[in-house]
Design a protein that fits this description.
The chain is mostly helical. It has a domain of 58 residues. It is 80% helix and 0% strand. It has 5 helices and no strands. Helix 3 crosses helix 4 and helix 4 crosses helix 5. It is elongated. The chain starts with a helix and ends with a helix.
């Protein structure tokens, strides 16, 4: 009976990895989509000489768009939907 309890409580590594990947995908999608409504505050923060939390928050997205041009193209097209 003790081995059954031990097997029952042992975490399933495959499910844990899949869960982590799913939540990572959800948060990255939210992060990328959040730049649309935040474009103008981000734009003003980047052109301001003072440090800004908004600018620091979206700086990794800016670097990712420079490193992966297809991502940059998609993000720019998405931002254009919010700017128009």
């Amino acid at each position: 009976m003790m081995t059954y309890v031990a097997e029952k409580t042992r975490p399933n590594l495959r499910l844990a990895i899949l869960s982590r990947l799913r939540w990572t995908w959800i948060w990255l999608t939210w992060y990328i989509l959040s730049i649309g409504p935040m474009f103008w505050p981000w734009y003003h923060a980047t052109n301001n000489s003072e440090p800004s939390l908004i600018e620091a928050f979206y700086r990794p997205l800016l670097y990712a768009c420079f490193m992966f041009p297809p991502l940059g193209t998609l993000v720019n097209a998405y931002i254009e939907l919010w700017v128009l």
